[in-house]
Write a structure and sequence with these properties.
The protein is mainly alpha-helical. It contains four helices and two strands. 59% of the residues lie in helices and 7% in strands. It is elongated and about 45 Å long.
Length: 104
């Protein structure tokens, strides 16, 4: 598959990340079934993706592929001592990005 040999594209990854942050907020505010699942603490990512149009589902798969490439790159950089060091509780490469913060 051609897509598997592609290099990580940070600009596209960032663009898709912003797109899906907005899309997920929109889905949660407009779908009563998703709201109910969220309130019951039963909401799964697959529930959100299933409510997306096919075009967005395809974008989602592209984003996941890029995200996997990014993770692989970050792990290799960590193992080779390049870039920002890994810090538990924080993202690779950004020690100020607290994972516990809600970015809503």
């Amino acid at each position: 598959m051609e897509e598997q040999n592609q290099a990580f594209d940070e600009a596209v990854h960032n663009e898709l990340n912003l797109y899906f942050r907005s899309k997920i907020r929109e889905l949660l505010s407009s779908h009563p079934d998703l709201q109910k699942l969220k309130e019951e603490n039963k909401l799964q990512l697959s529930d959100l993706v299933a409510c997306m149009p096919l075009e967005d589902q395809n974008r989602w798969h592209r984003f996941l592929h890029l995200d996997q490439l990014k993770l692989n790159q970050d792990i290799m950089n960590h193992l080779e001592g390049k870039g920002e060091p890994f810090n538990p509780g924080h993202r690779f490469g950004n020690p100020f990005a607290d994972l516990t913060m809600d970015n809503d």
